[in-house]
């Protein structure tokens, strides 16, 4: 608890974040409460098929993080928005020294329990990515920096990217890599709407499924409620950003992008039991992954 107080620099959960509107402050606080509320449910859903998360993690997200990070023995890893620790465990299993940061105490509790169960040594700390002073303080406490910083499906839940964009250069070693993976800004919610048509092939009589993405609004979409996984007990507030808005804060703070990927499911035959599944959209990337480095 003492360590949390040093890092967080605040004892009131209704913290004040400079530059944010009252609405965004309230939404950030609501997202914290939502993650605490769904922690047990989330952990159960993400561990149904094993220890590596659901199919989005195992087939799309984790392979991109592994490839773009290019982890080498002896390199340190910092995972921002670590949640229940899926990415942390992937690197720790390789032998990396890993630290995970998150603003949900209950998600961190799940992450620690899973690390202990798997016999993995991972350090987890509480921090709010919207609190720039706490982020700077954490960087001072870890002045040696980190070789790899990962950010997974986290930026979309932040009302502003300025604090994390300002903190990353302070946390990243020279020669280090930042790897971000999140929902695709054009082809996933809330901009991209999945559409489908089911028809009979006149030559074979077999049912055919045709899928497509419909983008009706892209440049300016207001904050919206969303479920990270369908059926979760409480929704989250998410923030859509077109490409330029997503990347510009990092460029302005001295980082450059040197790699990008757009992973999609490649499930043979798709998933006819669930027509809306991204398994039926093999030409549509569900995620966007990119790597940043010091300029």
TrEMBL record:
Gene3D superfamilies: Vaccinia Virus protein VP39
Pfam families listed in its UniProt record: Methyltransf_31
Domain of life of the source: Eukaryota
InterPro entries: Methyltranfer_dom, SAM-dependent_MTases_sf
Cross-referenced CDD domains: AdoMet_MTases
Domain Methyltransferase intervals: 73-182
Protein name: Methyltransferase domain-containing protein
Provenance organism: Friedmanniomyces endolithicus
């Amino acid at each position: 608890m003492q360590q949390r107080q040093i890092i967080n620099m605040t004892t009131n959960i209704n913290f004040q974040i400079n530059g944010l509107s009252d609405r965004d402050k309230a939404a950030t606080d609501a997202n914290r409460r939502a993650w605490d509320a769904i922690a047990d449910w989330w952990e159960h859903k993400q561990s149904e098929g094993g220890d590596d998360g659901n199919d989005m993690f195992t087939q799309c997200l984790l392979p991109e993080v592994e490839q773009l990070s290019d982890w080498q023995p002896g390199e340190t890893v910092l995972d921002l928005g670590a949640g229940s620790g899926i990415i942390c465990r992937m690197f720790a299993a390789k032998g990396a020294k890993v630290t995970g940061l998150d603003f949900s105490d209950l998600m961190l509790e799940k992450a620690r329990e899973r690390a202990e169960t798997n016999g993995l040594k991972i350090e987890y700390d509480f921090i709010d990515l919207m609190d720039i002073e706490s982020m700077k303080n954490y960087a001072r406490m870890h002045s040696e920096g980190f070789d790899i910083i990962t950010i997974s499906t986290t930026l979309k839940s932040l009302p502003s990217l300025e604090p994390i964009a300002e903190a990353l250069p302070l946390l990243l070693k020279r020669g280090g890599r930042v790897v971000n993976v999140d929902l695709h800004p054009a082809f996933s919610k809330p901009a991209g709407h999945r559409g489908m048509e089911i028809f009979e092939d006149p030559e074979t009589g077999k049912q055919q499924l045709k899928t497509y993405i419909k983008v009706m609004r892209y440049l300016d979409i207001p904050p919206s409620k969303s479920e990270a996984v369908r059926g979760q007990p409480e929704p989250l507030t998410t923030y859509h950003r077109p490409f330029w808005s997503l990347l510009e804060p990092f460029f302005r703070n001295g980082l450059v992008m040197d790699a990008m990927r757009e992973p999609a499911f490649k499930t043979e035959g798709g998933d006819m039991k669930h027509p809306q599944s991204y398994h039926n959209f093999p030409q549509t990337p569900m995620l966007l992954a990119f790597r940043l480095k010091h300029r």
